[in-house]
Amino acid sequence: MKLVVGLGNPGREYAWTRHNFGMMVLDFWAIQKGVKWQEKAAFNAEIAEITDGAGEKVLLAKPTTFYNESGKAVAAICKFYKLDVNEDLLVVCDDFRLSYGEVRYQRGGSDGGNNGLKSTTGAIGSDFARLRLGTGSAAHGKMSDADFVLGKFSPEEREKLPGVLEEAVEEMVAWQAE
Questions:
Q1: Residue 137 pLDDT more than 90?
Q2: What is the SS3 assignment for 97?
Q3: Has residue 115 got a pLDDT over 90?
């Protein structure tokens, strides 16, 4: 079994914000696969389950904690399912240090200043795979980091969003097949 966690904040007010990019990708994949989300209070997350082409289960999880407490949900799910975080976990998050639309996969590493990754590494260590989704733009230089990541995508960014979501799903499928 594999686990893909999309980071973001719960609540409608955070929908379409840059910080919810990870959750958007998982919603996009869940729609493609025709699966529904279920609230799992024990995990502090919403869970959907898909099966890959080889018959392996893949859990999709969206923490219901706030972004900077994501590690609680990730740790609870990994512990319950006895997952090897080095092999079985992929965390999908936004990264304003990458240009908008850039999708970067890496195994292990630092949190890079991302509070969701910081919470996760604090809870389970740093030996898990990450898929970082670039949100960087010129607008970032005109506001604080918090205002930027909690801001909505611009109309130009929203126009390009379907292509970025497709690329991110392709990366997740490639990771899953490793």
A1: no
A2: strand
A3: yes
Q: Where are the beta strands (DSSP E) in 26-87?
A: 38-40, 45-51, 57-63
Sheet (strand 57-63) strand order: 38-40, 45-51, 57-63, 2-6, 89-99, 129-136, 103-107
- The burial of 29, by beta-carbon neighbours within 10 Å (0-12 exposed, 13-18 middle, 19 or more buried), is given as buried
What pLDDT does 55 receive? 80
Would the pLDDT of 63 be above 80? yes
Nearest of 108, 67, 64 to residue 85 by alpha carbon: 108
- Tell me how long the chain is: 178
| φ, ψ for residue 90, nearest 5 deg | -130, 125
0.85 exceeded by the pTM? yes
Tokens standing for residue 14: 């955070």
Q: Tell me which residues are annotated as active site.
A: 19
